[in-house]
Design brief:
transport, 75% helix, cell membrane, globular, Na+/H+ antiporter like fold, mainly alpha
């Protein structure tokens, strides 16, 4: 469990630093917005490109990916259905569905995969699925829904071709699929830039906590609690049922998929919400609560299946 605690400790410290920066006003009134734009337009695309360009795409054919995909669509679908009935709006419902199913596979999933599961590559199917499928689809929905700044129809139709996160992901997949070797003078600067992504996202998240109310008590109470329940309990249960009951996974393989599905909502979802100016409170509170619940949930899973 040391790996779980270490991963959360690192995240908590960086978020706390962001909170102090916000309280002190070191970055001015627009500090959070600048960090968000830096992460969305520059650092995250670079990180995704360098990560996926080096990835082994054969993992997309694994049972782990199928379990991840089905359980993800199941819990996201539940949130979308409830959001449609409650009329939460397309943009808000999209952010909530992401918070219900999009796990922190990068800055938290990798250390947990290393220290708890013993193999960093075990998180690769989740990372690939989220970046190749979930992120482009969700951001396209947000673009077409008119979230954020209003744009002409032709810009909405071509949105997937201009989204920096989608471009970075697809470019990385293309490099990996074709077996091309990116020269060091190109890859090294991109790697350096990509290393800014996680700190920028966490710092922006910490700054956003300044002056915020207790999570789960504001007007977004219902979608926040639903997304947290689906993320912290629903998705791990769905993954366990599919892995054990449908795909017949046992032992370490079963533990792998359930642990990765129990990871909290990713901090970069707040970046997306901020970028499109929709569901920011929902994203912030869902991420915070699911991260707090992830420690006991992961401990229970490790005790039962480990």
């Amino acid at each position: 469990m040391q790996g779980v605690l270490n991963g959360f400790a690192v995240i908590a410290v960086v978020i706390a630093v962001g909170y102090l920066i916000g309280r002190r006003g070191y970055l001015g009134d627009n500090g959070r917005e600048v960090l968000t734009k830096l992460a969305f337009h520059v650092a995250t695309p670079a990180l995704l490109f360098t990560t996926l360009a080096r990835a082994d795409l054969s993992v997309i054919l694994s049972n782990r990916l199928l379990v991840t995909a089905i359980s993800t669509f199941a819990v996201a679908g539940i949130f979308v259905a409830v959001g449609a009935v409650r009329r939460w709006g397309v943009g808000r419902t999209t952010i909530g569905a992401l918070c219900s199913s999009y796990v922190n596979a990068g800055n938290l999933g990798i250390p947990i995969a290393v220290y708890v599961l013993g193999d960093a590559s075990l998180v690769a199917p989740v990372l690939l699925f989220q970046q190749i499928v979930m992120t482009p689809v969700a951001l396209t929905v947000l673009d077409l829904s008119g979230a954020g700044e209003k744009q002409p129809l032709w810009r909405q139709v071509t949105a997937p071709l201009r989204n920096p996160v989608g471009i970075g992901s697809l470019a990385g997949v293309a490099v990996s699929a074709t077996g091309l070797t990116v020269p060091g003078p190109v890859m090294d600067p991109l790697t350096l830039i990509g290393n800014m992504s996680v700190p920028a996202v966490l710092l922006a998240f910490g700054i956003s906590l300044c002056g915020s109310t207790m999570p789960g008590r504001g007007p977004d109470r219902a979608p926040v609690l639903l997304s947290v329940a689906l993320k912290s309990v629903g998705q791990p249960l769905a993954a366990w049922a599919l892995a054990a009951g449908v795909f017949g996974l046992r032992g370490e393989h079963l533990l792998d998929v359930v642990v990765t599905s129990a990871l909290p909502a990713a901090q970069n979802l707040f970046t997306y919400a901020s970028r499109y100016r929709v569901g920011e409170v929902l994203a912030r509170e869902s991420i915070l609560l699911s991260t707090m619940l992830a420690v006991p949930v992961l401990v229970v899973i490790a005790a039962l299946l480990g």
